[in-house]
Each structure stands twice: as C-alpha cells, then as structure tokens.
Amino acid sequence: MTQKIPDLYQVKEKMYVATDCIIFGFDSGKLKLLLFKRLVEPLKGRWSLIGSFVRLDEDIDVAGKRVLKEITGLDNVFMQQLKTYGKKDRDPGYRCISVAQYALISSDEHDEDLINEKKAHWFEIKDLPGLILDHEQMVQDALEQLRNNARYKPIGFELLPEKFTLPQLQSLYEAIYQVKLDSRNFRKKVLSLNVLEKLDEKDKSASKRGAFLYKFDYNNYNKLRESGYHFVIA
Amino acid sequence: MTQKIPDLYQVKEKMYVATDCIIFGFDSGKLKLLLFKRLVEPLKGRWSLIGSFVRLDEDIDVAGKRVLKEITGLDNVFMQQLKTYGKKDRDPGYRCISVAQYALISSDEHDEDLINEKKAHWFEIKDLPGLILDHEQMVQDALEQLRNNARYKPIGFELLPEKFTLPQLQSLYEAIYQVKLDSRNFRKKVLSLNVLEKLDEKDKSASKRGAFLYKFDYNNYNKLRESGYHFVIA
DNA sequence: ACAAAAGTGTTGAAAATACACCCATGT
DNA sequence: ACATGGGTGTATTTTCAACACTTTTGT
C-alpha cells in the first residue's frame, strides 16, 4: 500500500484567536465576577466577559494579562488558563476561537475609576445577568475549576489581600463552596497544614476585638507539595 | 474624558490553529503513550505527538477525534481538552497555537496495522524519547492532569476494556501513580463505591484460577456524583 | 453593661492503613 | 504436587464531624 501523507499536514487555514477573562473577586463575604457592558456592535449593550484578540506577536497568557491590566490597572495577578472554546459556530460573525483564562483578584486592590470608565460592574456570583455567546458556559466552567482547584491548591488565597484573618479566609471558602463551615474545625484544619504565618498585627475592621492577621507561607506550601500532600480545605 | 474604545476590539489578526493529541494506553501493566515519527519536514524523523491543523469549518474537539480516528481507527474514544499552548515562538516557522487534547484508549482495541503504517510506536511512560517543540511539556501536563482526574473521576476505566478484572484495575492505578497498592484495601475501597458490576465470567488470561470480570456501572456512578461524592482511589 | 465577633477542646464515628494466609487451577 | 496469581478479615491509627462557651473591646 502506498504511504500517503495524511491530509492533516497540509490543510492550513487561519482563524481569529481571542482570549476572554473570567475575573473573580471577593468582597464583603461575597464571591463576585467582573462583567462588562459591550460598547461596540454586535451585541452592543449586552453583558459579557472582557476579552481581546490575541496579537500575532503576543503569547496567549500575556494577552490575558494585558486585558486585565487595561481593565483593573493591576499587574501580577493570578491568572490561569481555563479552557479553549472552539465550536465552529460559537461566534456568529466569523470563525473565532477563544482561550478563556480566569483571574483571581483581591478586591481591595483594583482601580475603581478604571472600572467605572469601562462600564464594568461587579456581580454577585449567585446573581449574574445573561451573557453573550458562550460566556455563561465559560463562567460555569470557571466556577467549577475554581472549586476543584481551591480544594487542593492554595489558590483561594489569591482572592485575599497579602495579610488576611482566619475569619476572612473562612468566609472566602464559604463563598466559594456556598456552605457554612464550623470555625473550630476550619481553624484546626487550616493551621495544621503549617502554611500560614501568624503576624503580630490585628485587623480591627470587622470587630472591636480584632482578629490576628496571617500571611501565606509559600515556602512551606512548596515543601508540603513535594512530599505529595494534598491540600484539602472544606 | 473621552471614552475611547479600547484598541483590543480592533486588532484582528489570524493565526494557525492546530491540535495535538496525547494518546495514553495501558498494556501489560504499563502506562503507555503513542508517538509518531514525523514524516515531513521540518523536523522530519523526530518523535512527536500526532496533530493536525483545525479546519475552518470544524469544531476543535472534532478535529481531535478526526486525528485519533485516522491514527487508531477508533471512534467514540474518551478525549479531553488539556490546555492550549500559545507562546508566540513555540513553533519556529509561523505563529501557530495548539490546543492539546488527551485520549485514553484501551490498548486491546486499536488497529495495529494502521499504527504501523503511520510509523507510530507505543512508548512506556517512563521511557519516552525526546520530542519536538513543546510536546514534552504537553505530555508532562497531560500526565499531571490524568493523575489529578483519575483520583476523582472514573476516567481510569477508559483505559481498560469494557470488561476488566480487579487485578487489572489495580495494576492500572499502580501504573498511573507509580505506587504499589495493597490488594485488600484496594478492593475494599473500589467495591465500596458500588460502581462496579460483577459479572459471572472469569478472565483466565493472567492466571490459572482466573479473576472475575467487572463492568463499570455508569448509572450508579452518576447517582454518586450527584450526591456530591468524591471518587478517590489511591 | 452589652453587643459582636474572635478564639478555643473534647468526644464519638468513620475512614484509612497495616498486615498474612488460604483458594483454585493448569501444568 | 507445586507454582501462580486471586481472593479474603481484623485490629490499630488517623482523620473528620459535631458540638457551646469564654474572651476582648468599642460603644
């Protein structure tokens, strides 16, 4: 039989490649999502994720960071690729695939003026408006991945400021998983992991007594990982 | 201040979009990967994953299935998107991003002639040759995801024939995680999940006594999932 | 003095681990 | 009869889950 070079090596068609950002924040005990009112046709005026085409000379993850910077003013944000959406008819205009990436930002940090200017709005996760195209699917998938990952990696910490209190951390996990946790068991479990460093300061913004602040200890976390341990909160 | 529509809505450049397939198999107690000797320049003769450009009128996941079919002759294979590789210089020739997908196939099924014809070869996971471009990274990432997923979802079963024995299943998990498991504890745990249906047949290919065959029970598994259970083996 | 959130221990149940021998069968 | 892999039970340790009161401090 003759050896035919398969067709697949030859078909070379180009497509539009975009990235969309699912931006999670945490504020007042609520898990939130940053959404945008589209300023341009088509679908002008509808809520959507923020996205951009990826430039020819730009890494995809860099494109995500660029978008995030343009919107929030933030650099150095935790961002992770979620999934690529590539149904041939997902965008009615032209063939465009989208690499969705999700970001976790601590909501005390972003630039509010910038967000207002871009007609963006923080929505509670339980109360999202309808979104264009496959953006609702993206959000569902991102939530699922966030929940999976927050169980075994400390990415939940990315949603908090550098220094945070245990009640804040607990409330974050409660918001992510939509459950109520017992504070005694929660503290026991978290502290037993030895990945939190207790500081000598207190945060008094949430109570008169004040709660001790902690920092996440990446060194200890990495040691823990290497020894094959699984990080399970909640 | 004037509201400027951000640049990002306007840059529209097209790129090549490819998909690469990480094909896992399980055979003789070893976890294996199907690799290909490249038939075309550039990098002709080097080992690589098998891939293809995605066609303009083709969903990305469909492209993956097409590639898999061309190589193994198999339809209806478990396949899952891994990650999109989009560094701007990942391919030296032109800007090309690749959506990596991984497949799990039960090694008794594929078409050997087809594989020979395509100059493909099954490599043990512990003994892989060097690969082109970022394909080694893809394989590492796929392994990590396989290990993560096999812990909480029954995807390990995809690597076995429809009917399999408990010693086979145990050996599969041992191959995935590179550990030795205690057969009593393993059986206890797996059977306690109630997702296996014991058949009245035995497989005598591995021992004189023969081992009972089991089938995976998707109904019970789905019930289990809905009740929020986490599937943890090993 | 009181309201409001922070912090703290114990007990019982359940799950995970460690561990060694008999069984069935083909040769 | 023996070699080979299949199959089984129990005791110990560890982890998880349930549960309520005292402390601190600003008003």
Automatic annotation (TrEMBL), chains A, B:
It comes from the Bacteria. InterPro entries: NUDIX_hydrolase-like_dom_sf (IPR015797), NUDIX_hydrolase_dom (IPR000086), WH-like_DNA-bd_sf (IPR036388), WH_DNA-bd_sf (IPR036390), WHD_NrtR (IPR054105). It comes from Christiangramia oceanisediminis. Residues 14-145 form the Nudix hydrolase domain. PROSITE patterns: NUDIX. Pfam families: NUDIX, WHD_NrtR. Transmembrane segments: none annotated. This is DNA mismatch repair protein MutT.
